């Protein structure tokens, strides 16, 4: 468990760099360019001669992941001094929007900054907001929804999700404090890739003294809590008897492990059985764990349906929005407890540039932290400690205010994604490929198509509307689901964990998409630069296509 002095120092550091963010950004860029001037990349673009941000933006081109793919591969094979003078200490695994797994190197200073802000400052903000509780009452018993697989690169360098770098490092060094987590080491750090959901839930439900719930994304949390509701009676029975009910698919090895670790606990089972099942989901978390003080995980506009559900499940327990991060970098931290979806940017972690929203298609102007304005939207461009230079991560943000000189932002959308219900990152190319595969497999020509996310069921799913003059077969939805899995690694992974339901396909009559253009004009939309509709975001849009549907499969 962190000590209070460490957490206070981290919050102080955060506020100090934010109060002088403009100066900090200039210092960050100058130091980074000088340090990496004699790398391959630095010599190619003359880092040694670049004197300021304006010259930097004119000299170094904008980039995306494919610009680094070959260099990352070289680094994985042992080559050094390519992008940074500092060698990787960790490789972040991300399916990303490309559909294939990618390994993004992370240098030591990057990892240290992550530890400072993600692991220390974020908890310091929570500690500061809840002074009435002791450190033990806040951080003494954490239900962590994630697991951290012990996977490495061929040379022994650790890899995994970026959020786990500090925990993996501490575990490897033997300094990780397991005593404040509900799950034991074997469950928190599983030896092989498998579904650990039941095990994590059993250990957490059986512990009445949970003080905090930590996770990464809100949708994962909501899925886990709905899993608890769905299997409420069976879980209570297992707690009471020290067994594993037949409805749970657990290996014999894990069943034996649970039998030894979790003996029958009738008293805890009675506590849970005494809760009103009919109203359980209303403020569910503090009902199950009466000592719960806060919940911390990424939420906000990109996860809005799940953020709303999580807020309802948490009841009076405050939420902390955790961090603004991606595999490429950490960019921000939620500045206050209760801030859901707003993040203050970290000026000593990345160099930030901003493209005004109206110029995203053909950038003409690159703004800095000094130039941007509250209420305006921008695409964010990153230069990171680990060797991404002027990197277009794809996020469009809105400035909602400032902490000191550093912007407080919310994420509005990701410009290159079609749809991402559970962070599966389905992009245009993948969706188009899935529809093409569907047409090839079924022999049904598709003139046009669009997709919507549906959250009406117990778990969400894709709704696809296909304009065709042919009748869909009985198994059309199953076929489309397989095509989506073939086209997107992210979709396939989340479907394999049963966090997305099978896609549903509907055909719509010929001419529907032309009618939709007229519908949009009647709704007051300007159509001069309207692009073909691919993702439906509003209830009116979905209702229009539902009314045009001929059949469902």
Description:
With 553 residues, this protein is an alpha/beta fold. The protein has 3 domains: 9-109 and 322-414, ANL, N-terminal domain (Rossmann fold, 3-Layer(aba) Sandwich), CATH 3.40.50.12780; 131-147 and 183-317, no CATH class; 418-552. The protein is built from 21 helices and 22 strands. The chain has a 7-stranded antiparallel β-sheet with strand order 9-10-11-15-14-13-12. Strand 1 and strand 2 (102-107) form a beta hairpin. The radius of gyration is 25 Å and the shape is globular.
CATH homologous superfamily name of the largest domain?
A: ANL, N-terminal domain
CATH topology of the largest domain: Rossmann fold
* Radius of gyration (Å): 25 Å
Number of domains: 3
Secondary structure tally, helices: 21
Kindly, what is the distance between the CA atoms of the first and last residues, rounded to a whole number of angstroms? 52 Å
Strand percent estimate? 15-25%
What is the CATH class of the largest domain?
A: Alpha Beta
CATH architecture assignment of the largest domain: 3-Layer(aba) Sandwich
Instruction: Give the helix proportion (percent range).
Output: 25-40%
Mean pLDDT: 90
Count every beta strand, where a strand is a DSSP E run of 2 or more residues.
22
Low-confidence stretches: 526-530
